[in-house]
Structures are given as structure tokens and as C-alpha cells.
Amino acid sequence: MSLLPYLIAGWIFLVGVHGMATSRNLIHAVGCLAVTQSSTYVLLLSVGYRKGATAPVFSDVPTSVPVVDPVVQALALTDVVVGATVTALLLALVVQTAKRHGTVDPDELSGLKG
């Protein structure tokens, strides 16, 4: 078992978090959040990887052959769908914020009035 995929997932996560923390643009912050989300794909795929294993299709695979865990693959696919949905929702909110306030800089946004 190699430590490299876990280190890559951690590095991608840290790059995304650093981008979110230093961003002065809401669109850039949403993109950095998507990068942070993609680190979970790498992490899930590295958890589910088995050397020498085949796809989890059991109709033609002998019982002695190791197979990859299909639950981890399903979680990664679900993670992709949730990440795309969250990104689309946040970008829609950024567009509405730009229409209403005329800026996407978080420092220039006024407080809520109500």
C-alpha cells in the first residue's frame, strides 16, 4: 500500500483551502471549493484501490480473484454529483449577488438590512 495517493489528496485539499482563505473574488472562492471537493475523490479512490483486483462484476469472475470494493466507487460517484450540484448552486448565488450588489468582492458587500 502506497502513501502517495493520500499525500496527493491532502495536498489538493490544502491548495483548495488556501485558495478559499486568500480569495478576493467569490467566483474564485467557489472554484477553490470545487478543488477542495476534488481531493475527496482522490481520497475515496485511493481507499478503494486494491492491487491486482478486477472490476466488481461477478458474472464472469472466479471466486478466487480479488475484486475492488464497489461501495467506495459508488461513494465517489455520489461525491461527484453532490460537488457539481453545490458548485452550481453557489455560482447561481454569486450571480445573484453580483446583480444585486454590483460586485463579487466579499469585502465590498454591505451587511444585511432587515
UniProtKB/TrEMBL annotation:
Keywords: Cell membrane, Membrane, Transmembrane, Transmembrane helix. It is found in: Cell membrane. GO terms for cellular component: plasma membrane. InterPro entries: CPA3_antiporter_subunitC, NUOK/Mnh_C1-like. Its main location: membrane. The chain crosses the membrane at residues 71-95. Pfam families: Oxidored_q2 (PF00420). It is a multi-pass membrane protein. Belongs to the CPA3 antiporters (TC 2.A.63) subunit C family. PANTHER family: ANTIPORTER SUBUNIT MNHC2-RELATED. This is Dehydrogenase. It comes from Streptomyces klenkii.
